Every structure is written in structure tokens, then in C-alpha cells.
Amino acid sequence: MSELAHAATPLDVTAPPILTVQDLQMYFPVKYRGIFQRTIGHVQAVDGVSFQVPKGGSLGLVGESGCGKSTTGRLITRLYEPTDGEINFDGRNIAHLSQRELLPLRREIQMIFQDPATSLNPRHTVGAIVGAPLLIHKVVPKNKVLPRVQELLEVVGLNPEHYNRYPHEFSGGQRQRIGIARSLTLQPKLLVADEPVSALDVSIQAQVINLLQDVQREFGIGFLFIAHDLAIVRHFCPEIAVMYLGKIVEIADRETLYNHPHHPYTQALLSAVPDVKQAAIGGRRERIRLEGDVPSPINPPSGCRFRTRCSMAQEICSKVEPPLLQVGPRHKVACHFPGELGHAPQRPVTTAICGVDDHGNAVSGATADIQLNAPGYDTTWLDLKTGQRAGT
Amino acid sequence: MTSYLSVRDLVVHFPTVDGVVKATDGLSYEVERGKTLGIVGESGSGKSVSSSAILGLHRGTNAKVSGEILLDGDDLLQLNDEQMRRHRGRDVAMIFQDPLSAMHPYYTVGNQIAEAYLVHNKVSKKAAKARAIEMLDRVGIPQPDRRVDDYPHQFSGGMRQRAMIAMGLINNPGLLIADEPTTALDVTVQAQILDLLQDLQREFNSAIIIITHDLGVVAEMADDVLVMYAGRAVEYGPCKEILTHPEMPYTWGLLSSVPDLTADTNAKLIPIRGNPPSLLSPPPGCAFNPRCDHRDKVPGDLCTTQVPDLTPARSGGNHVKRCHLANPDEVYVAEVLPEIAPDLVKETP
Amino acid sequence: MFAYVVRRCFTGVIMLVVMSFVTYFLFFASPLDPGKFACGKSCPPALIKQTDKALGFDKPWPVQWKDFAVGVVKGRDYPEDPALRKSAPQLISHCSAPCLGYSQVNLINVTSELKDKIPISASLALVAFLMWIAGGISLGAIAALTKGSIVDRGVVGISLVFYALPTFWMGLFLIEFPAIKWGLVAVPSYTSIADGGVWGWLSNLFLPALTLALFYMAGYVRITRAFVLESMSEDYLRTAKAKGLAPRKILVKHTMRAALTPIVTLAGLDFAGLLGGAIITEQVFNFNGLGKLAVDSIQTFDLPTTLGLVLLLAAFVIVANIIVDILYAVIDPRVRVG
């Protein structure tokens, strides 16, 4: 492994997308168990999510538990079939493919799970676990499986001679390495990493993060990196989407999202993270307190889903759902009052686009003119300082 | 004048068929009322085991506990089981990592909180329930008079931890031990809980021990920090000192292996090599030596043969560290800081 | 909850219908001729034919099943054949609903036959149940609390010995030694409360119930021990301890409550199974209960009795299941308030 490794893949704005997700939706039915069962509602786990993952690049997906980030990951690996929307992988919509049609795709999209202890079969040797995909997909002749397995174990920093050991003989960090080796077996183009380090000790987390960065560089794998730890996502991903109650509320490049967040939820989330350095040198800073809990995804608030906990919420927020508005070259935010902390606009900036007045009441004759919620970025955007459209 | 809690040379050993697990081996620290001690370490470092010993939770198991645990002058290790029981929950309370499994699923939240009050106070059940409602209100549960009759599974994770805190503080204990109180929670909820703990500490003037693996939580909460590795304290002192002038390579490792929200994006994550040691047969000498990157700077085979003593750090004060390095502060500034915080080094040439 | 019970009762009834159907099918799939059995040995073919006709065995079995089902709901008259009835009207007997059929072997209708036997088996089951629950749970809890000690190993080891001993051996032993040789108790023969009072009833049940209880108890000791140990390692027990609760209170309020919940399920089903008759024990002690009846009716190819027993036992199990589920909701609030 090259020595230049151990660094995040930089943002390559020209890279073509390996994955494009459009209006992805996943509703889980809620059953009423009376004399006759019937569906009485839906858990709107993922509701109209759009984003792109560039070839060989990474997109981070952050949010708190129940925001739909893990469901999104499972939809992309097609562990679930989405209720609606498109998942374009390498130019092909895989949202509704049958299990049989999906089989060849399973080679290309792999997943790394949170808990290495439960996601590895305790009765199989490491060699069997890592080699299973090779046998299932018949990519190499049987006698070539073992050498390939040993090669992979070496890549992830395990002793290749340990192929005939069982998962319980390894530590947590080593087990996660086994999980990574297994996911690399078929040389996937996209890896969905769902909380890959959150079950590990801090000193081990860094080992695994560095390993993931190394394999990304070496094999040019696109990553959808799902985590609740904002600092780790920042370290790994040049581009990050923030989810709240099944929707993306803000998506931007790393620098913009962490230094100039425009959505009040992103701001609250960032201010809630305890910061070693700041506390050590500058003392404690004031947090933005979010009151209460996340509302139920079965019956989410009308309009903007964050409004029940938002200090800036006004009438329009309960009436009109804010569109995911592009406000910079690589920055989109879903808020009627987007702006940096303390610099939010007085008037909603979305009235013209949504065709409503300042209070969220419909204005006759006005209609939305641009396609919102499209994945990727436009060449023009709304400049919040001037209120005009700007472009490159 | 001694501190409210003073732990001296605490040893907790678990004899097993394979040998003795030295979970805690000669640990000493102090906490005053109104102050917070953060105990940091990885799983298996002995941080939870040593704190459970304060409550006497190892009684009735085969654990061998020795040393002194002075709570307000009384040595808890000298008490019999019944005397110890009267201290539990009244003078020392504990809250745990996972509030869902820490509450009995079959009893209402109110019942479980009131139970903690009833056991130490001669009051009616009704009065205890009223007190439970009062505490639920104090920790910020909306509609406490209604939620008091809810079962734990009807609460959200954050609310459950609030209820646990209410249960812990209902007798106004002098010491609250919080074992990873926010690890299972989301960041915004974590922030709520940490704020709440700080508010309550000011109100009740209790001492808090917060056990965590998260340096960020320590940085926000603690006055003093104790870094544990393989059952021993490896660095101990005022929080600010330790975070800015750490003198033990393991502490450096902890700082460098966690990404920081405000760090330079070019900063590297430098993991600690290898895995935490087995407590059955810890490495000879300094337990950290197999994973240490700075062993070559110590002459001879000191690191692999001799356990270093806790010695005063260069920065002085009450800051002590357990390391054979002669000039750890210089090594830190010259070698570690440029890697993990290149921006800081540039700012202060 | 109410809707849940209604739904469960509904599926229970469907299960009973299916089971009676399957029993009919299996009965007639056998190569033996039920008419010949009913008529007795060395019965001339003409008489067999007449018996078949009298009992309705000449009709195709689905039709017989239908007649049976109607009988359960409405009641029916025997014999079935109109011509026979006309010729001997004095022989017509009515079997009122719920009519489970008429046993030609025992010359009694099955419903009243079962009614006679149920108290015997139920008494036996009830006393045995109380004995094994009391013994199994307390011994299991003691074993768990003294885990690893001599007491623990002794309790677990001895219960295993009892589990391994066959019931008939245990039954014969208890009759032979405590009753006959040592004269500690009288050799039991079933006495109803009406005949012998509570004491007479109970004392005669003691030995057979003990035979059954010792067998079941062994399992309950082990299960209770495992559940108590599991419950003792739960986080909430650490919380209870950290609150300063007294050990007794922790054991009774926190440990046992959680440990006993899964035992409710097992106990309910085991009890229901036993209500349907303890075949070997009843045989050994010569108790004329459902278990003995079952053996006899199968040996004599007595379809109505066999069918009645099957349905009765199935109904016990189904009802026990529903009761267990309701109990569960009472015990565990997570089931009750979702």
C-alpha cells in the first residue's frame, strides 16, 4: 500500500456519478392488529431523497437515529425495494429489479455493517466468509479462491495465514477488517458503509478509517458513508448530506457545510458536538439547544418537518414544504430562511419558487419554474446576498 | 481537608480459571463536591470496574477488592453489606450507558424512581410518587404527572436517560457516577443531557465522575481528567492541562486518533497500533509499550521491564503521568502536534 | 386486546374443524374395518354390514364427517339409517348438542363418556401442576442463587435423575414401597370430592400426582435456574442494586418477576397437555381418566371416542394458548401498550 495514503479522497467535481438517486421514497406500512388487519398509516422512513455519489468519490450521509440514513443505505443495496423513486447505478435504474436481475449487481454494490460481531457468521472461517462471494458469483476457479482470500486479508492488514480461524478469535477492529475484506472480494464500484466504526474503540476507529481511505484510493471505489459522528464524516467525505426525518435538509461540500451551514438543523447538530480542541483552548461555547425529541415519522409535521423544533419557524414553515434550493455552486438547503447562524433573512427566500406569499398562502398564477429536488447541482443558483440568480 | 471522595490504591482483581484478571491495579484519585472528574479509556481499561467498586457492586461476586475508598471520610471497603447498601443511592448514585436496559421493563418509570426514594426515606408511597413527579419535572420531562405512569419503552432514549438521572439524584447524593451516560444517544440529545448534568451539579453541588471514551465529552464536562490504560492511571490532572499539554503517548494516541470538527481538513488520523492488551497477562513493563511509537527514545529496555511511576508532569500543578520519556512535552510539540493539528503549529511558530 | 382474543378464538375454531377432518381422514385411511370392530369377533358378514349401516360407516367418509359436524352444532339421533329407525323405534337415542358421537364399543354417547372422565384427569393434572410449579420454581431459584455451589449441583443433578427415570417405573415404585410395603399412604384409587371430601380426594391423588410432578419438575428446575440467572445478569438488576434496595426486594420484585414470565408460557401448555390425560400414570395407578380412555379407544378402534378425545385435547391446548397470551399481556407492559 502506497505511503501517500491515509487521506480523504478530494472532491472531484468533474467525476461522473456512479450512483444517482432521485426522489427515493420508502414507506413502511403500519398495521392495525384488530379483528381484521389493515394498514392504518406509514412510517415515512425516506421521503423524496435525491443525491449523487461520484465515481471513486464519497458522499457522507449524517443525521440522528430515525432520520432514514440507514434505510437509504439499505435501499441502495436493494435490501429493501423502494416505494418510489429511482436508483441509477452506473446508468441503470435498479430500484425495482427482481432478485434474479439484481444478482450480477450485488458484485458491484457492497455493504459494510456497523456491528462486526453480529454481521459475520460465527460458524464460518474467515476464509469461507471472505471467499463466499467468489464462489457464489463463480468469478474464479475453486482452486484460486484461497490465494485471492489471502491477498485480500493482506490488503486489509490481517495475517493471510489466519484464513482458517473463526471470527470470535479476532478483536472488534480485526473483525471489521474481515467485513471490509469480504466487501472488497468482488471489487465493487460502490460501497455503502453504514456506521462502519461506531462500534469500535476510539483508537481502533482511526485504523479502520485509514484502511477505508486506502482501499478507496487503491481500487477507486465510490463510498456512501453513513454515520452519526459528524467529525468522522467530515474527515472521510468531501461532500456531505444532512438528513432529518426522511429528508435531506442540507447538502454541500465539506468546507461549506461545516463552516457555513445554512440550515438551522445543521447548525444545531454541529454545535451539539463536543469539541476537544475548542474546549481545551477557548473554553466552553454556547450550544444551540434543540428542545424535545424528533417527531414520529408516521405523522410528520406539515410543511417543514423541522419546524416544531426550529427557533426561526414562521407561518410559512407549517404551510409550505421548503424545496431543496441551490444557494451556491455546490450547496443546497431546504429552508425558507436559509443563512449562516445569526444571518438568516427576514423574509422567506422561497416565495417566488413555491408560488406563495410571505405567509405561505398560494398566489394565483404563480408556479414553480425550476426543477427542484434533482440530484447533482445546477450551473446557476440563487445568490442569497443579492437575491438574484448567479452562475459560474 | 480531604476531598468528598478519595480513592487510594484501589485494586480490583477477578480470579478466573485462566488466571487473575487485573481489571484495576492501584488506582488513586480524588473528587470534590461540585467538581467533575472525567475517566477516559478504551473498553477493558478498567474505568467502569473501578467505579462500580465505589458502589460496592462487586460484593457477592468472586472479585477481590482492596485499597481505600473514602467517601466523606468513611472507608466504604470496611463497611459490611448492610451498611454499604444504605450508602447506595443515598450518598452515591450511578447512571448507566443504556437507559433502556437499565430500567426494568415491567414497572412504570415512576415506580422505579419512587422506589429509589422509598428505600432511604420513611415516607408514604404517595409522597414518594409526588417526589418522583417533582424530579421528572426537574430533569425536563414534559407533563411529568402523566408520564410518571408510563413504562420505560414508552419513553424516547433521551427521556429515559433523563429519568435515570432523576432516579439517581432523587436522594440528593453527594456523588453521581455517570458511566458512558450519552454513548447510546444522538448528539443533540447528548448535548441536552450534558447540559442537564451541569445544571443539576450546580444546583445540588454534587461531585460527578463521568466515565467515557469520548474526549469531547470530557473536554466539555470535566475539571479533572484521569486517563486509564490496562487497569492503571497513565495520566491524571486538570482537564485543560491534559488536553493542551499531554505527556503520555497513549493520551497523544487518543487525541490523534479522533477527528476534530474544527481541525484542519489536512490533519491526519494517527491510529494507535495494535489492540488493547489482555488484562490476564498485560505486557511486562509499561503496559502501553507494544503500541507506543516513542519507545526508541527511552534508553535501554526500561519500557519493557519496569512499570513507570506516576511522576509530576513538566507543566507542574497536579498533573501526573506514567511514562519513561525524559522530555515528553518536547516530543509532543515537535512530533505529534504538527501531524494532528498543522494549523495550530502554523499559528504559533 | 379484545379484538386479539376474538381473532385467536376464531382461528382456534378453524383449527378444531381442520383437526377433526384430518382425524376422520386418517381413521378411514387405515385398512381396518371399523364396523367389524364394533360388531365384535366372529361376526358374520351380514351383521357387519348391518352394523356399518347402523353406525353410518357405509357412507363416504366426508359425508360422515359432515354428519358429525352437524351433530356437534345441532345434536343428532342414533341410529342414522331411516329404515333401521322405522323398524326399531324403541332403540332411537338422541344425542344432544354438542354431540361428539356415540361409542358403539362402550355403548354410551361420547360427550357423557368424556364428562365422566374429565374430573379424574383434571384433578390429577391440577395437583401435579401445583406440586411441580411450587417445587420446580423454588428449587430452580435456589440453584440459581447458589450457582456453582454444592446445593446448586445437587439440585440440578437430582432433578436430572428424576427426569431420566421413566414414569411407569416411578409410579410402580411409589405403589410398591410407600403404599404397600411401608404403608405410609393407602394405595390410591380415585375418590371425588363429593364422595370422599377434600381430604379423601387429595390423599388419593398424592402418589400419582407426585409421579407426574417429579418428571415435570426436573425440567422446570433447569428452566427456572436458567431464566433467573439470565435475569440476574440484566442491567436493570445492577440499577436496582445501585439504588440500595435490599437483596430480598431485588430478588422478589426485580429478578423473579422477569424470570417467571417465560415460564408462564411453558406451564400453560404443559398443563393443558396434561389435562388431556396422563396415559402412563393413569394406567399404572388404574385411574379411569382420559389417558386410559384414549389407550382403550385406540385399541378398540372406537372412532367417536378417539375423535372426541383428540378434539378435547386440541381445545385445551388452544384455550391454554389464548390464556397464556392474555396473561403475557398482563405481565409484560411492552405487549400490552405497544
Q: What is the CATH-assigned architecture of the domain at 17-247 in chain A? A: 3-Layer(aba) Sandwich
Alpha-beta classification of chain B: alpha/beta
The tally of domains of chain B stands at: 2
The helix content of chain B is 25-40%
The total beta strand count of chain A reads: 14
Q: How many angstroms does the end-to-end distance of chain B come to?
A: 43 Å
| Order of H and E elements of chain A | EEEHEEHEHHHEHEHEEHHHHEEHEE
The largest sheet of chain B has its strands arranged as 6-7-8-3-9-10-12-11
Largest sheet of chain B: 8 strands, mixed
Task: Describe this structure as you would to a colleague.
The complex is a heterotrimer of chains A (392), B (349) and C (338). With 392 residues, chain A is an alpha/beta fold. Chain A has a domain at 17-247: Rossmann fold. Chain A has 12 helices and 14 strands. In chain A, helix 3 (126-136) crosses helix 4 and helix 3 (126-136) packs parallel to helix 5. The mean pLDDT of chain B is 90. Chain B has 2 domains: 5-222, P-loop containing nucleotide triphosphate hydrolases (Rossmann fold, 3-Layer(aba) Sandwich); 243-347, no CATH class. Chain B contains 13 helices and 12 strands. Chain B has helices at residues 47-54, 81-87, 109-118, 125-138, 144-147, 157-169, 187-204, 215-221, 239-244, 249-256, 302-305, 328-340, 342-347, and strands at residues 5-16, 19-31, 36-40, 64-71, 74-75, 92-95, 175-179, 207-212, 224-229, 232-238, 310-312, 320-322. Chain B is an alpha/beta fold and 349 residues long. Chain B is globular and about 70 Å long. Chain C has 338 residues and is mainly α. Chain C has 2 domains: 13-99, no CATH class; 112-336, MetI-like fold (Orthogonal Bundle), CATH 1.10.3720. Chain C contains 15 helices and 4 strands. Chain C has a two-stranded antiparallel ribbon. In chain C, helix 1 (2-29) runs antiparallel to helix 14, helix 6 runs antiparallel to helix 7 and helix 7 packs across helix 9. Chains in contact: A-B, A-C, B-C.
